Every structure is written in C-alpha cells, then in structure tokens.
Automatic annotation (TrEMBL), chain A:
It is found in: Mitochondrion inner membrane. Keywords: ATP synthesis, CF(1), Hydrogen ion transport, Ion transport, Membrane, Mitochondrion, Mitochondrion inner membrane, Transit peptide, Transport. Its main location: mitochondrion. One of its GO terms (molecular function) is proton-transporting ATP synthase activity, rotational mechanism. Mitochondrial membrane ATP synthase (F(1)F(0) ATP synthase or Complex V) produces ATP from ADP in the presence of a proton gradient across the membrane which is generated by electron transport complexes of the respiratory chain. F-type ATPases consist of two structural domains, F(1) - containing the extramembraneous catalytic core, and F(0) - containing the membrane proton channel, linked together by a central stalk and a peripheral stalk. During catalysis, ATP turnover in the catalytic domain of F(1) is coupled via a rotary mechanism of the central stalk subunits to proton translocation. This is ATP synthase subunit delta', mitochondrial. Belongs to the ATPase epsilon chain family. It holds the Pfam family ATP-synt_DE_N. One of its GO terms (cellular component) is mitochondrial inner membrane. Residues 70-141 form the ATP synthase F1 complex delta/epsilon subunit N-terminal domain. F-type ATPases have 2 components, CF(1) - the catalytic core - and CF(0) - the membrane proton channel. CF(1) has five subunits: alpha(3), beta(3), gamma(1), delta(1), epsilon(1). CF(0) has three main subunits: a, b and c.
From TrEMBL, chain B:
This is ATP synthase subunit gamma, mitochondrial. SUPFAM superfamilies: ATP synthase (F1-ATPase), gamma subunit. F-type ATPases have 2 components, CF(1) - the catalytic core - and CF(0) - the membrane proton channel. CF(1) has five subunits: alpha(3), beta(3), gamma(1), delta(1), epsilon(1). CF(0) has three main subunits: a, b and c. It comes from the Eukaryota. It is a peripheral membrane protein. Keywords: ATP synthesis, CF(1), Hydrogen ion transport, Ion transport, Membrane, Mitochondrion, Mitochondrion inner membrane, Transit peptide, Transport. It comes from Solanum stoloniferum. Its main location: mitochondrion. Mitochondrial membrane ATP synthase (F(1)F(0) ATP synthase or Complex V) produces ATP from ADP in the presence of a proton gradient across the membrane which is generated by electron transport complexes of the respiratory chain. F-type ATPases consist of two structural domains, F(1) - containing the extramembraneous catalytic core, and F(0) - containing the membrane proton channel, linked together by a central stalk and a peripheral stalk. During catalysis, ATP synthesis in the catalytic domain of F(1) is coupled via a rotary mechanism of the central stalk subunits to proton translocation. The lineage of its organism: Eukaryota, Viridiplantae, Streptophyta, Embryophyta, Tracheophyta.
Length: 200, 324
C-alpha cells in the first residue's frame, strides 16, 4: 500500500521546489482558475476539460538584461523544424521586407511572404524557402515562426525552377479566363520568388 | 462492412438469449441447475451450444481484425499528430488561453469520429460540448454547435437540433492533411458568426487515456477589444505589427490562421484518440469473446460427457439386468 508513497512525497516536494514563491509563478497560470471554478459551479458532475496551456511548457518572463541568444521555434503543420533552438539571428521574409531578428528585438507580429528564411548560428547559416505565414517575436527573446510549407534551399532544383518560370510566363500570356490568369499569376509569383532566392 | 457484420452476428447471437434478467444472460449457460442435461432429458442436442460457439468465434475474428486495423492506423496517425503539436503553441503563447472569456456569440466546434466501436470518446466530446453550452448560456447569449463527425451529430441532433449550425462528416475519407482542414476551417469561418470558437476534442495521451480538451479561438474584434481594455490579452498591445495596412486586417489573418492550425491539431489528436480507443475496445472485446468461448466449450464438453455417461449407464445397467 505504501509502495508508491515515496513517489507521491517526492512529487509533492518537487512541485513545491519548482514554484517556491507566488512571485515565481510564470506569467500565465497553469490552468485558468476562473474557468475551472465556473465549470465546477455549473457542471459539478463532469470534470473540467483541459485547455491548451496545460500541455505547453511555460515561457520564461522577460529577463532584465538582454540574453545572448535568440530562442527560435520554427513550426510547420507536419513537423517542428526547430523547437526551442538557441541561435544568434534569424532573417524573416516579412511582407514589409526582410527583417533581421536579434536577441532583445522589440516585440513584433509580422506577416510573411514567400521568400528565404535564414537561421544564423555561429558561422552556420541554414536557409529555407518558406511559403508565407506568421512570425512573432516576443519581448523575452523568443521567436515563433509558423509557415505552411518550408524547404531547405539546397533541395530546390534550379533547372526545374527556370522551366516552371518559363512555363507559367507562357501560360500567363495565353490565359483567357480569369481563373487561368490567376493560377498562372500565382505560378509566376512563386517561381520568381524561388528564382530570386536561388540566384540572390 | 466489418461493423455491419459484427452487428449481424451480435443480433443472431442475442436473440435466443433475450431474458428478463440481462445480467444473467451469459452466465445462464453455465449454471448446471438450468441445464436441460440434468432435468432428466436423454440425448440433449449440442446443436445450440455449437451454434453459439461458432458465432462467438466469428465475433472474435472480426474484433481481432478490427484491432489490427486500428493498430496500424494508429501508428500512422500518431506520428502526424505528434508532429503537429508544435503548430498551435506559438498562438497560445501570443494570444493566450482564454476558456473563461465571456462573449455573446459562442460557437462550440465538437469534433468526433464518423464510426463507433471506439469506447467513450464520442460521448465524451458530446458531454463536454453540452457542458460548454450550459456554462456559456445566459440571457442575451447565443450558443451554436458546429459538429464534425457522424457520431456527435447523431447524439446532438436529439436534443439540440435548433442550435446546430453546421454539420460536416466523412472527414477521414482521405488521410488528413493541412490543406483539407484549412478548407474546412474556412467553411466554418464563412458560414458561422462568432465571437469565440470553442473547439472540443479528445487529446491523445496514450492508447488508453485521452484528455477532453477545449481550445478557444477568439474573433478579431474580441481580440482587439480585449487587448485595448487590457484584459487577458493586454500584452498584445505591446507588439509592433508589420504587414497589412491596418491592425484589424492583420488580426483577422492571424485569428483565421490560428483557427486553421488549432483545428488541424485538434482533428489529428481526435483521430489518434479514436484509433487508440478502438484498439483498446477491440482488444478487450476479443478477450471477452475468448473467455466466453472457453466457457461455452466447457459447457459443450460437459454436456457431451453427460450424454455419454448416461448412455454408458444405460448399457451397463441393461447388461447387468440381463445377467442377473
């Protein structure tokens, strides 16, 4: 009966260790207490459901001095390319132009356009072609980049890009309906962005 | 198809057993006092028991096959669900997690499976959705349902038909991908007016445990209002916004993107939970069928033995009567 006693004890003590004082609580509470209370009052028979923040590591508060590294999360629907990786700088293809983000960058929400995302880590630079999405830079030197599609730049075949570009340019000139025109325009835009990424 | 077959088997097998005391149904064949063997009838037919054994064996075969199918599907979808877990986290970090927000138009997006035989995950979704409805109801408040999946539809239509705004089924006909889910999310955004969307789904934890979860997505207007009034999203005002001309436009794009990402993860998590639940449900039912088969075999053999013994006794007593 007491076999698991030590485990419970140790768990309780570690919990106490992790949050010794109320001031040490992370900015966001582990669970929304208002919600849980309201739920318990209205529906006492059912346990309150979890909410997403319960499954997430809490982010640290903004440090007083600027940290030396930027923590980047770069996510796609089918994978997390980078998660919590500490790098020196990222350059983001915002709709307003390329945006370099260093540690201590002002908090920003940026929309992305198709273009190159480069991640600088010491002397290593990894470049991705991204298809657009969002990037958030938080005040605590965290950067979140969410895109729908991203490919490392070295996996793109320049010949196929050239071929696609000429194909779509031709299609654009011969397009008759609005739909065809729009499709060809999208093709041209993507391929010229790819071309610029490869040559530039 | 397998399910239809299973139902048929189940019915065939249940009909001779309908008794006023359902708890006793399966045991009845084991209690010797109720056996026809001992009530003095000679040459009892073992046909009934044999038939039942056959049908139980068939059920076991089907449930075993379904378990295998669920296991292989689970493996495929579990990795995808786990890979998509990074997707929603930035949004929650930025826009916070606001299940307690008090708004006028609530839309509850209930995610469930199209097929049954997967434990309690569908009824859990429905239960939590109903509870959300109750929690957010009040004067001058609106609650609507958007239902994904056949099973939740069947349960919700019964009592809240007037609140159902949109029903989508056969989501998993093709393997789930982001494009498909974002088209669906777009459909919901276009057809439903909302201040807050509450996505109810089962988050996959392990093959035997699922956590009912509610993710909240606010409309751009509510986000702006909250940010300005300095409520839960007060931090949002500190962010510089780059992109389209106005803040409202960026917020609109942002919340729509958030919804599609949240939906993508929710749909995948729920599908994973479904396969996991089906796997464990089918596992336990194959085990139950195995147990039942053992008991039936025992009864069958006992009956056979009894009839043999009776015959022997008859022969021996006949012979001894002749001798004596």
């Amino acid at each position: 009966m007491f076999r698991h006693g030590s485990r419970f004890l140790s768990r309780a003590s570690t919990m106490r260790w992790r949050r010794p004082f109320s001031t040490d609580l992370p900015a966001e509470a582990y669970k929304d207490s208002n919600f849980v209370e309201a739920w318990r009052k209205a529906i006492p028979t059912v346990e309150p459901p979890s909410t997403p923040s319960a499954f997430m590591a809490t982010r640290p508060a903004t440090p007083s001095s600027i940290p030396s590294k930027l923590t980047v999360n770069f996510v796609l629907p089918y994978s997390s390319e980078l998660s919590g990786k500490e790098v020196d700088m990222v350059i983001i293809p915002a709709t307003t132009g390329q945006m370099g983000v260093l540690p201590g960058h002002v908090a920003t929400i940026a929309e992305l356009k198709p273009g190159i995302l480069s991640v600088h880590e010491g002397n290593d630079v990894s470049k991705y072609f991204v298809s657009g999405g969002f990037a958030y830079v938080h005040a605590n030197s965290f950067a979140d980049i969410i895109t729908v599609e991203a490919v490392p730049l070295d996996r793109i075949d320049p010949n196929l890009v050239q071929k696609g570009l000429t194909d779509f340019t031709q299609k654009l000139s011969t397009a008759s309906t609005d739909v065809e025109k729009a499709e060809a325009q999208i093709g041209v835009d993507v391929h010229s962005a790819l071309n610029a990424a490869l040559t530039g | 198809m397998a399910m239809a077959a299973l139902r048929r088997e189940g019915r065939r097998f249940a009909t001779p057993l309908i008794s006023p005391n359902p708890a006793n149904v399966f045991r009845s064949s084991l209690i010797p006092s109720e056996e026809p063997v001992l009530s003095g009838v000679r040459c009892i037919s073992t046909q009934v028991v044999r038939n039942r054994m056959k049908s139980v064996k068939n059920i076991q075969k089907i449930t075993k096959a379904m378990k295998m199918v669920a296991a292989s599907k689970l493996r495929a979808i579990q990795t995808r669900a786990e890979n998509s877990r990074g997707l929603w986290q930035p949004f929650t970090a930025l826009l916070g997690d606001t299940p307690s927000i008090d708004v006028k138009k609530n839309v509850i997006v209930t995610i469930s499976a199209d097929k049954g035989l997967c434990g309690g995950i569908n009824s859990t979704s429905v239960k939590i959705s109903r509870a959300m409805h109750k929690l957010n109801s009040g004067p001058d408040k609106e609650n609507k349902y958007v239902v994904l999946g056949e099973k939740a539809k069947a349960q919700l239509v019964r009592d809240s038909k007037k609140d159902i705004e949109l029903v989508m089924t056969e989501l998993q006909k093709n393997p789930l991908n982001y494009t498909q889910v974002s088209v669906m999310a777009d459909d919901i955004l276009k057809n439903v007016e909302f201040d807050a969307l509450r996505i109810v789904y089962n988050k996959f934890q392990s093959v035997v445990s699922f956590l009912p979860t509610v993710s909240t997505v606010l409309s751009p207007e509510v986000v702006e209002r909250e940010a300005e009034s300095g409520g839960k999203l007060g931090d949002l005002d500190l962010y510089e916004i780059e992109g389209a001309e106005t803040k409202a436009e960026v917020l609109q794009n942002l919340t729509e993107f958030q919804f599609s990402c949240m939906m993508y993860n929710a749909v995948l998590e729920n599908a994973t939970s479904e396969q996991g639940a089906r796997m464990s449900a089918m596992d336990s039912s194959s085990r139950n069928a195995g147990d039942m088969l053992d008991r039936l075999t025992l009864t069958y053999n006992r009956t056979r033995q009894a009839s043999i013994t009776t015959e022997l006794i008859e022969i021996i007593s006949g012979a001894s009567a002749l001798e004596g």
